[in-house]
From TrEMBL:
It comes from Acropora cervicornis. This is Uncharacterized protein. InterPro entries: CECR6, CECR6/TMEM121. The keyword Zinc does not apply. Keywords: Membrane, Transmembrane, Transmembrane helix. Belongs to the TMEM121 family. Signal peptide: none annotated.
Length: 265
């Protein structure tokens, strides 16, 4: 652990000195997220081998380092970096819930609340990553749009996981299988986020209409409709207020329909 922290500290200093930028914050936040998530099974299972799950983030860090040192950190390559990061996030999240999800102790430091905060780093990492692209000024309209849409969807998925964590604390009566389904859908939602990037052809500066159409359809069904149904069940059957995100999912579903219609014109 000390060696890993030392390596990343040196990396940060090199980038700060050589490039005069604070892009290394992406790596530091990435490091915080991956080590904290790996700490859950390692701590609860009392087995440091679980720290190896943090290696699921290694590809995204490796690619980002290459791009940073070669000064090739353009937006289209950062899309790849984000996709690799999301894969690591899904793996580590699945490991946490599959192994210690039922035994999280709110009295411990590594409890449900810290897990929520760690997962909330994800949208912040997205904003940081996209806005440190070397060609961000060439995509002044696209980057803010992507940041807003993707960050909202990421928070939506994190909030679904938050419902599961709150059930562990307050016992609303939500069945374990239902909670597991919510975690799976949240992970799928994470995996969908790079799709929003992929629908943009940066070289030709245009939208890939077919890719966008299928992204709308899948997102409407897997994310917004599924989350809307889940939250409706949570509200009416288990009496937990989810009205704000129900409204978000409903609005997003309607916007998805409108988006598909606009692609046909």
């Amino acid at each position: 652990m000390a060696l890993v922290n030392f390596v990343f500290l040196i990396t940060r200093l090199v980038i700060l000195i050589k490039y005069k930028k604070d892009e290394s914050i992406f790596i530091l936040k990435n490091l915080v997220a991956c080590l904290f998530l790996a700490s859950y099974p390692a701590n609860y299972k009392n087995n440091s081998t679980w720290y190896l799950t943090s290696l699921s983030y290694a590809p995204s860090v490796f690619v980002w380092l290459i791009l940073a040192f070669c000064k090739k950190a353009k937006l289209r390559w950062l899309f790849l970096t984000w996709g690799l990061y999301v894969l690591g996030l899904v793996v580590s999240t699945a490991v946490v819930f599959a192994n210690v999800g039922d035994i999280l102790d709110k009295e411990k430091f590594l409890g449900p609340n810290v897990l929520k905060m760690v997962l909330c780093i994800t949208p912040l990492l997205l904003l940081l990553l996209l806005n440190t692209a070397e060609d961000v000024k060439d995509h002044k309209e696209l980057v803010p749009s992507l940041c807003f849409q993707m960050a909202v969807d990421l928070f939506d998925a994190v909030e679904i996981i938050d419902i599961v964590l709150e059930e562990r604390e307050h016992s609303y009566g939500i069945p374990k299988g239902f909670g597991d389904t919510m975690v799976v859908l949240a992970c799928i939602s994470f995996l969908l986020s790079p799709w929003q990037m992929a629908e943009n052809d940066l070289e030709k500066d245009k939208l890939r209409r077919r890719t966008a159409k299928w992204r709308y359809i899948v997102e409407m069904i897997v994310e917004n409709l599924a989350f809307l149904v889940i939250r409706s069940v949570i509200v009416f059957k288990y009496k937990k207020d989810e009205s704000i995100f129900i409204a978000k999912n409903g609005i997003a579903f309607v916007l998805g329909v409108m988006g598909i219609r606009s692609l046909k014109n």
